[in-house]
Amino acid sequence: MSGNASRSATDMLTLYHSGSSVCSQKVRLALAEKGIPWTSRNLDMTKGEHQTPDYLKLNPNGVVPTLVTDTGDVIRESSVIIEYVDALAAPLLMPVRGSAVWQTRLWLIRCIEIHAAINSLTFATVIRKMVLGSMTAEQLEDWLARAPGPDITEKRRDLMNRGAQSPHVDGAVATLDGVFRDMDTALRNGPWLMGDDYSLADCALLAYVDRVRRLGLGGLYEGRFGSIAYWLERSRARPSYGSAIQAYYDDETETKYLAAGSEAWPQIAARLLVRH
Length: 276
Ligand SMILES: N[C@@H](CCC(=O)N[C@@H](CS)C(=O)NCC(=O)O)C(=O)O
What we know:
With 276 residues, the chain is mainly alpha-helical. It has two domains: 9-88, Glutaredoxin; 99-275, Up-down Bundle (Glutathione S-transferase Yfyf (Class Pi), Chain A, domain 2), CATH 1.20.1050. The chain is 59% helix and 5% strand. It has eleven helices and four strands; from the N terminus they run E-H-E-H-E-E-H-H-H-H-H-H-H-H-H. The chain has helices at residues 22-34, 53-58, 78-88, 99-134, 137-145, 150-162, 167-186, 200-214, 227-236, 239-244, 251-275, and strands at residues 14-17, 39-42, 66-68, 74-76. The protein has a four-stranded mixed beta sheet, covered by helices on one side. Helix 1 (22-34) runs parallel beside helix 3 and helix 1 (22-34) packs across helix 8 (200-214). The N and C termini lie far apart (58 Å). The protein binds glutathione.
C-alpha cells in the first residue's frame, strides 16, 4: 500500500467504464448513491479501448464495467459490482431482513436478461443507424467479428439487417413487458421497489428504464404500468442521476437516441399489440 496507511478501500477503487453504457451507468449510480470516491478509466468503445490486450486481462469478454479494488481484486458483472460497492459503507442499500432481501437479489439477477433486452433495443435503433451510416461492408464485418462472443456477433448481425423487425426485438419486448408488470406490482407498496426505502433494486434498474425512455420507447410501460413513469421521475430527481447518467450525455447524443428510437416505435408498438 504505497506508504499511505490512512487510505481505505473506498479511496482506491478504479472503475473501467464507458459513458453511455447502461451497465456502467448502473455502477456509477451506486458509487454516487453511496458517496464513494473512485478513479475513472473511461474507455471509448468506438475506438475499441475495451478490446486492448491490457483490458482483456481484466475482463476477458471485453465488456464494461470492471472494478479493481484497493487490494487488486478484479470484479466484473455490474450487479456483483454494486453489491460489493454497497457493502463498503453504511447505510446499506441492500435490505437486511425480510422478503426484501431475496426480492432485491432477484432483481439483481434479472438484470442479465434486462440488459440483453435493452441491448437489443439500442442496437436495433440508434446503434444500427450509426453503424449503417458510417461503415463500409468490410468495416461492418470487422465490427461484428469483434463483438463479445459468436452468439452476440450473430445477434448483432440480425439487428443490423432487420432492425426493429428482428426476432431479438420480439424477445426484448416480451422480457420488458414482464419486467414492467412486476415493477408496477412492486410499486403498489410504496415509492420504491422495496416499499418506503430506496434500495439496491431501484439503483440496479434505473439505467435500463432510463434508456427505454431516452429512446422514446416509454410506450412500453406508459398506459398499462402507470407507476413506472413516476418512479423514473423520482429516481431522476436524485442527485446521483445527474452525476452518474445525465452528465455523460450531450445534446447531440440525446437527439440521436430519441430520433432513432422514436422512428422504430410504430414497429415496436405493433409487437406489443400482438402480445396484448
Ligand atoms: N452482464 C454484464 C454485461 C456487460 C456488457 O455487455 N457491457 C456492454 C456495455 S453496457 C459492453 O461492454 N459491450 C461491449 C461491446 O459490445 O463490444 C454486466 O452487467 O456487467
